[in-house]
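Notes to self after the Tuesday call (sharing in case useful).
The group wants a holo model before anyone commits to mutagenesis around the pocket. I volunteered. Ligand is adenosine-5'-diphosphate. Logging inputs and output together so the record is complete.
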Amino acid sequence: MELKSIKGISNAFETKLNSLGIFSVENLIEYYPYRYNIINLINIKDAVPDEVCTVKAFVVDEPKVQYIKRNFNRMIFKVMSDNLIFNVTIFNRAFYKKNLTLNKMVVLVGKYNKLKNTFTASDIKFNLVENKIEPVYHLVEGLTNNNLSKFINEALKNNLYYDYIPYIYTEKYHFINKLEAVNLIHNPRSISDIKASYLRLKYEELFDFMFKINYLKKLNNKAKGIKRDLNNNYIDLFSNNLPFKLTSDQIKVMTEIYQDLTNEARMNRLVLGDVGSGKTIVATYAIYLNFLSGYQSTLMAPTEILATQHYESIKKILNAFNIKTEILTGATKKKERDNILNNLKDGKIDLLIGTHALISDNVEFNKLGLVITDEQHRFGVSQRNNLSAKGITPDVLYLSATPIPRTYALTIYGDLDLSMIKTKPVGRKEIITKVYKDNDIKDVLYKILDELKLGHQIYVVSPLIENNGELDLKSVFDLEEKFNIAFNHQVKIGILHGKLKPTEKEKIMDDFKKGDLKILISTTVIEVGVDVPNTTMIVIFNAERFGLATLHQLRGRVGRGNIQSYCYLISNKDVERLKVLEESNDGFYISEKDFEMRGSGDLFGLKQSGEATFKIANLKTDGEILLQAKVDSLEYIEKELYLDNEYYESMVNEITFIQ
Ligand code: ADP
Ligand code: MG
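Result:
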């Protein structure tokens, strides 16, 4: 239903609602408050430190506004309340300035600091409402909390919602009904109203989600794959030529893969392991088995740099077994590309490595049996479709260096079988990690110099290519200049970023690998997988801009050989969080911490990729509801109860279709 059908929504308001991601009446109804004000007027003298309170006051002096950054301002004004005069500070509400005239009565919501005689307000109201619970929404300029509340309540009159919780579970848990829940969440009368509404809406969202995941898993388990005839797992033969001894976890995962490949069910497995835990060798083993049974394999990497690196290291191992390996990337010349494609079709190539562009329409395999995707969360339904349309159901292996907490793994990867590599290859040294302030940069430069003198190489990472002037960030170009000055142009520095052409990137990576370049300054394009064992130090500027999991992955670029390696994080902010990396080198532990500190929303950039985002559920706090939803949705599937439910039945049909 269109927004404009709601009373009071003008064109101007519609634009503002759009900017909040609200495009329909349904969106509006689901625009839930992010918190509530419990309005209980008190006397300012009774304000408790650090506790939110609400007081009535009068403006006694004109507000002053400071614009700190784009989208960020601070307003300060004086008020009097119960014969006490104090300052009020409020952020991002500059648009209230014109309403704050002398002697105006206001109701302030916030915290009062007695020592500083300052009230930090989170909200200001202009009419007196006593002892009420009020929803608070995220706003944009020109759209007040009152506006939104009104629009939402208009929208609620349409009774536009469908209850997705199957009746048996509504009964079982005595959930309030959807209509009531949605109304109460926007207009609660008590705390218990809010709790009951949340519980019900969260369960609904998680049940829906887990149903999808469980149904996919069921289909995957049923999907017929290739049943290979191998009478031995050949792990000994395979590892004979390796220059190291496999870790126990590597052997365990290889055994799991052997089982997948030799049974009839289609393999759909995710190998999770920290950076440097040795996943590549495990994938190479899968390729080897697949080759022995007469099938072609493909390995897809997210970037050309990674594809090239995989090609080089995997080829070395597979040459010993006469496995013909080729690489295809965006940079492959037309003639060579045609040649590769022909040989692939004729079955003369056993393994094709490349970027995801590989699965374009004109790539035809002769007998594809195994698809490996590296460092990618998932390969999309449409890509899977592409392969299936070619009449093949290859086994699929995913590799990920993003260790994720258990609850999270259960959801986004719930339809995959999980293998974990937790043991690190022996002899690996822990990477010494330190957090430095901007002002201590001299110490960092000295350390870099020490490492350079030892003949080692350095990575430097910045979140930006160029400085856009607005933010206090060190860009790749800024750093290049600074380092050149610091080292008097005596140290060869390369720069790498996403805007370079593939051939340019390759050249720089090559020069760095050969040791012609000593320092590589880059954006996070080196984040995943790059392997130059002589690099013993990584320095990350504006480290506060990255999640812990990302920083941990970046850190994994060093410490690849047996030389002691270092990771220096430069930041003036958020030091507490960054210190987690000083304490630990364990990706699984770090991801738990990241999860705790940042919540699931922006974890690993999943928000952008649109996977596993929830409107109301929060995986960090709703683990129990999630687990219950998992159990219930499984039961719902097993007992085929969904056949009586229009919504879930059509969902099932859709899933089956895209498979
Ligand atoms: P990742 O899990 O990050 O993909 P890689 O597979 O690239 O890790 O392995 C990192 C490095 O460790 C490679 O140089 C690889 O040859 C080496 N390696 C892998 N397994 C072992 C092992 N069991 N013992 C010693 N070194 C190993
Ligand atoms: Mg199988």
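Two things stood out.
The radius of gyration is 29 Å.
The domain at 228-263+278-400 is CATH 3.40.50.300 (Rossmann fold).
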